């Protein structure tokens, strides 16, 4: 009888120990879960910002390294933009087709660019010649006052993936439409109505001083 009681006491002690052990394991697991969740929450709060900052810095560094490969040209208004010299005249087929190629690539990359059509304003043509030091034909592309090149160079850069890197960071080409010129970048001269000539006091025709040779004035909001 005494042996039976001793065995019963041992079983009760064992059951109590097991119960305490289970509770201890459950408590430890709960604390561990809370610790893990807390660490995850901290990572969720800090990691995205850190990664974004790191990616932006890396992107800027890559852009600066890539731009250092090109010659610097001080394009008016091109310090932090893309400037594209082109022509809308189809007199020379190759020139016109080259301009279309570059325009297509720029629009395909969804970037905003300053278009300077030399056929609409001779000042653009003279500006392009002055920048490059020689009489050249469009298209010519500049990014952040760096001369990227003509159609052949731009197409080659697009094929090796460098053009995308050069154009990253610029605003989308899907920007709002200009209320004045509807993104045509020129307006008909208000003084001569596009004739580029006006009647003087002596009733003789003279050159209009308000517009260019095509009777157009630059849109103040776009150029």
From TrEMBL:
InterPro entries: Glutaredoxin. It holds the Pfam family Glutaredoxin. Residues 82-148 form the Glutaredoxin domain. This is Thioredoxin-like superfamily. It comes from Arabidopsis suecica (Swedish thale-cress).
């Amino acid at each position: 009888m005494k042996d039976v009681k001793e065995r019963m006491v041992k079983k009760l002690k064992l059951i109590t120990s097991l119960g305490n052990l289970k509770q201890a394991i459950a408590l430890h697991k709960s604390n561990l879960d809370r610790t893990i969740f807390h660490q995850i929450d901290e990572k969720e709060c800090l990691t995205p910002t850190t990664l974004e900052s790191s990616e932006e810095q890396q992107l800027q560094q890559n852009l600066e390294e890539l731009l250092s490969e090109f010659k610097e040209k001080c394009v008016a208004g091109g310090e932090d933009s893309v400037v594209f010299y082109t022509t809308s005249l189809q007199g020379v087929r190759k020139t016109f087709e080259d301009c279309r190629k570059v325009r297509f690539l720029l629009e395909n990359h969804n970037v905003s660019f300053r278009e300077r059509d030399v056929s609409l304003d001779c000042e653009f043509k003279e500006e392009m010649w002055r920048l490059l030091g020689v009489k050249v034909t469009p298209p010519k592309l500049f990014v952040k006052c760096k001369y990227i090149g003509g159609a052949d160079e731009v197409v080659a850069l697009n094929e090796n993936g460098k053009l995308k890197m050069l154009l990253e960071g610029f605003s989308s080409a899907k920007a709002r439409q200009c209320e004045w010129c509807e993104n045509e970048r020129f307006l008909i001269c208000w003084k001569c109505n596009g004739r580029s000539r006006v009647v003087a006091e002596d009733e003789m025709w003279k050159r209009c001083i308000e517009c260019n040779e095509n009777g157009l004035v630059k849109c103040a909001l776009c150029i």
